[in-house]
Design a protein that fits this description.
Elements: E1 5-8, H1 12-23, E2 28-32, E3 55-58, H2 65-75, H3 79-86, E4 88-89, E5 94-97, H4 99-112, E6 116-120, E7 131-134, H5 142-152, E8 157-163, E9 166-168, E10 178-179, H6 189-192, E11 195-200, H7 202-214, H8 235-240, E12 268-274, E13 281-284, H9 293-300, E14 311-313, E15 316-322, H10 325-328, E16 334-335, E17 338-343, H11 353-371, H12 384-395, H13 424-445
Parallel strand pairs: 1-2, 1-7, 2-6, 7-17
Antiparallel strand pairs: 3-5, 4-5, 8-15, 9-13, 9-14, 10-11, 11-12, 12-13, 16-17
Length: 446
């Protein structure tokens, strides 16, 4: 009888790992502590619940590294990408997801799989026997985190991740806001109008920055420090770095024309993206925040078009933990001191839904191959998957290891191609062509 694979954590990584192993014919028990034990960020007991943004970011598999990762996961029969595609919302060149139906479908598919059993309840200690994948994510429970620290002898690294607010669509003033994707990107009219835009004059912007800087913020507990991941900075932290920072970040006014005042170029623009298929909810793009709830309402209602906004969810902040993977994990994502334990997802030091799911996909395949007696090599480093796992399991400097999104900076150069901005388009296409061929070859050999 084939040995059972146990997976702790039913987020993006754990769900994908369970699917891949089950599809390979390995019995899987997926352990999820929710809803019996909740977290600050989660609101349901569904598997693969999306807690921050509803975006899987760029879906361009020729010019974008995360889009390439989408392609590789689709080619590998990934459950997360299949459900994301099924519940996609218009988002220009990005892939945004209707989060609740997405999580409900992932949960249903896993529970219906004959090789998967879902067990609810908290695992508080690292198991000593059997095949296990630890995919507990950035909100690993305190007891299990302590057990991991005890085993590794390493101090856990930490950063703070902030959640963006969600607005009820019918409370947005459409006499001020308008629908348009930046540069009218998208193949359909719906995609070209995937974002809701709220324009700001210079006076509006300056007043907003003043209010943002003066607003009450969530306080840290004693001993905690604000080690933010740069890809998820709270807006107030960005504003503290310079008054113009937001105008060159999530509030940049480029590529947009206000139909209410076509002759007036906005000084800044706040974008909102549809958060559900009904179009009743919109999240404020890039507006992660640690402002206190009362201050959030006051500051956000200074945005033209949001003066009377009502919020389905306000922003929040929580601590994310991850292990020092370059020193602790081998290239099979196994804990060097306990090779029966693999780690996957954000706890390994990757950042983002897609990257987390990708590391779950890889861990699930590697674990299943080992259990079935058909060991599988890690994917080639010229693939997006291979570049990312190579980074976290040894490519990064352990002394300065920080969470990382997939990006072309992790890829080996292609000989004979021009560097710099002018050669970027050809260079990225060469990266993606090479990666697709290598990934398909790896899949065929499995």
């Amino acid at each position: 009888m084939t040995e059972t694979l146990h997976i702790i954590g039913g987020g993006m990584a754990g769900s994908e790992a369970a699917w891949q192993a089950a599809q390979a014919g390995v019995p899987v028990v997926l352990h999820e502590m929710r809803p019996e034990v909740g977290t600050f960020a989660h609101q349901t007991g569904n598997l693969a619940e999306m807690v921050c943004s509803n975006s899987f970011r760029s879906d361009d598999d020729e010019q974008n590294a995360v889009g390439l990762l989408h392609w590789e996961m689709r080619a590998a029969g990934g459950l997360i990408m299949e459900m994301a595609d099924r519940h996609a919302l218009p988002a220009g060149s990005a892939l945004a997801v209707d989060r609740d139906p997405f999580a409900e479908d992932v949960t249903a598919r896993l529970k219906a799989h004959p090789n998967v059993t879902v067990e609810y309840g908290e695992i508080t200690e690292l198991p000593t026997e059997g095949h296990w994948i630890i995919a507990t994510g950035p909100l690993t429970s305190g007891s299990l985190a302590q057990s991991i620290l005890k085993e590794t002898g390493e101090e856990s690294l930490a950063f703070f991740d902030a959640i963006a607010p969600i607005v009820y669509a019918d409370t947005i003033d459409m006499e001020k806001a308008w629908f348009q994707s930046r540069y009218d990107k998208g193949e359909t009219e719906e995609e070209r109008k995937a974002y809701l835009n709220c324009p700001m004059s210079k006076e509006d912007y300056e007043g907003f920055i003043d209010a943002l800087l003066a607003a009450e913020k969530t306080e840290f507990k004693p001993g905690e420090t604000a080690g933010y991941f740069d890809g998820c900075l709270p807006i107030e932290v960005m504003a503290e770095r310079g008054r113009e920072t937001l105008r060159f970040g999530p509030m940049k006014p480029i590529g947009l024309t206000n139909p209410h005042q076509p002759d007036v170029k906005p000084y800044a623009v706040v974008q909102l993206r549809r958060d559900n298929a009904l179009g009743t909810l919109f999240n404020i793009v890039g507006f992660q925040t640690k402002m206190k709830y009362g201050a959030q309402k006051e500051v956000l209602r200074r945005i033209p078009g949001l003066e009377k906004a009502e919020f389905a969810r306000l922003g929040g902040i929580h601590r994310n933990t991850f292990i020092n993977s370059p020193t602790l994990l081998d290239d099979q994502m196994r804990l060097k001191s306990r090779p029966n334990l693999r780690f996957a997802g954000q706890i390994t030091g990757v950042e983002g839904y897609v990257e987390s799911a990708a590391m779950g996909l890889l861990a699930g395949r590697l674990a299943a191959a080992e259990i079935l007696g058909k060991p599988l090599a890690s994917p080639p480093q010229d693939t997006a998957m291979g570049a990312l796992v190579r980074h976290i399991t040894g490519g990064a400097d352990a002394k300065t290891f920080q969470p990382m999104n997939v990006n072309f900076g992790l890829f080996r150069p292609v000989d004979g191609l021009k560097g710099g901005r002018r050669g970027r388009k050809d260079r990225y296409k060469a990266y993606t062509d090479r990666a697709k061929a290598a990934w398909q070859q790896w899949l065929d050999a499995a």
